[in-house]
Structure formats: C-alpha cells, structure tokens
Design goal:
Helix content: 55-70%
Order of helices and strands: HHH
Number of strands: 0
Number of domains: 1
Largest sheet: none
Radius of gyration: 26 Å
Shape: rod-shaped
Strand content: under 5%
Number of helices: 3
Structural class: mainly alpha
Distance between the termini: 84 Å
C-alpha cells in the first residue's frame, strides 16, 4: 500500500472509532437505561438476603 491508501484507512478507522464511541455514550446516558444502571450501582451494598424472608436460624429460634 502506498501512503495515500494507509492514510485513508487510518481516517476511516478513526471515523468509525468516533462514531462507535458516540454511540456507546448515547446508549449509556439514555433515559431507558437509567433504571438498570441505578440497580447495578446498588449491587455492592446488597447483603444478599431478602429482608422479607426470614432465615432458618431465626425461624428455629422463634419455635423454641
């Protein structure tokens, strides 16, 4: 390839990367994804237990 072909290929690649980046930004900041991202943001604070369900140890203590 000569220099002209290489520069054209680099320009097309750069344009594609910019369009892809802007697409990801638009997707990430879209209002339809807000609920999903808010739920994902709370995952580190989740203790892994449902507050509505009592554990077996607590149920056994209540039966005694």
């Amino acid at each position: 390839m000569n220099d002209m072909d290489t520069n054209v290929l680099q320009g097309i690649s750069t344009a594609f990367a910019i369009v892809a980046f802007l697409g990801v930004c638009a997707w990430a900041y879209s209002a339809s994804k807000k609920k999903d991202f808010d739920e994902a943001a709370q995952l580190p604070f989740n203790d892994g237990f449902d507050n509505d369900v009592q554990s077996d140890d607590k149920n056994e203590a209540d039966e005694r």
